[in-house]
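The pair is quoted verbatim underneath.

:::
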Amino acid sequence: MRTADAVVIGAGVNGASTAYNLIKRGLKRVVLLEKYLLASGGTGRSAALVRQHYSNEELILMVKRAIQVFHHFNEEVGGDCGFVNCGWAFLVPDYVSDGFSRNMQMQQRLGIQTQEISKPELLAIEPRLVLDDVSRIAYEPGSGYADPHSTTYSYCQRFRELGGEMMQMTAAEGLVIEAGAVKGVKTGHGEIATEIVINAAGPWAPYVGKWAGLDVPIQVTREEEIIIESSDVGGPPKTAISDMAKAIYYRPHGRTHTLLGRGFPKEYEYVDPDHYRESADPKFIEEASTTFVKRIPAFEKALFVNAYTGLYDVTPDWYPILGRVEEVKGFIMCAGFSGHGFKLGPAIGELMAEEAIDGKAHSIDISRFNLSRYRTGQLFKAAYGANRA
């Protein structure tokens, strides 16, 4: 029987980052299980925005650490994460002005490089924007976007170089639980004896939780995006933008393409992660593109070159479930990121390694993210609602 100091289930960005940090911290035998291929779940079709505007201190500190890693990825981890430091702007309507002010004050107090800028200042960066319905604008010059496949691959590759074992095309099929403690993981290629299991299975995390006798309140939603050829309309936007005023987001996607998605508020379609439509709906393409053209009229004649659907693993309060669970010794949750997971990935891996090796995360306090909050009613509240956090 194969034995391991720890088994990580799921090779998305958070599972890969966790596995790498476990072995970096000194564990000798770490197994990373993936039912299909790396980044083949929610990570691979992430919008991969890297921004720092959040409504609570813990997430701000997490993404502050994560962006440090993205900026210095080759030195910190090794390899390429595809990070593009194009900046990020947040366009908000007037009705959230108070929450915006509180968030900006908290972020600046915690050392985030962010500032409120005027419409003329944003137009100096991207002059094609029409900003008539925008009340206030946050700008983060150090933010941008990265490549989810390159990031995950680099973590997996470094993990393997340091002696970790990655098992692709190997689904977890159950857990061995004895006397309320993890003793192993069942797979299609045999059982792995271990006393630490980290559930980083993303959309499949509730199934892994059930094997441990846990009710993990995660639902899976379809999240659609469009890739637009932008070379003949003046190129992609000059900065990444989360546009709350129009409930869309958009960013450069390489040198000539633009990525466009729909933000909150919108109708959510809950799906089975093993059976869902992976193509984007024509209605979504029409509505999102029409809204986008109102913001940047130059894109009216742009051609769409791809459209697809990814997955979010969504919790009731749109915040992740992190850390050890009370009910099962050795079982650690790392799921329910609700659309935040990619940008947090570098910090999450470090925190999960602290949970597994030190018994508790200590570089950032993640105690509020525990699974038990749904039983006690201590849910998170965000300034803007849903996954805007």
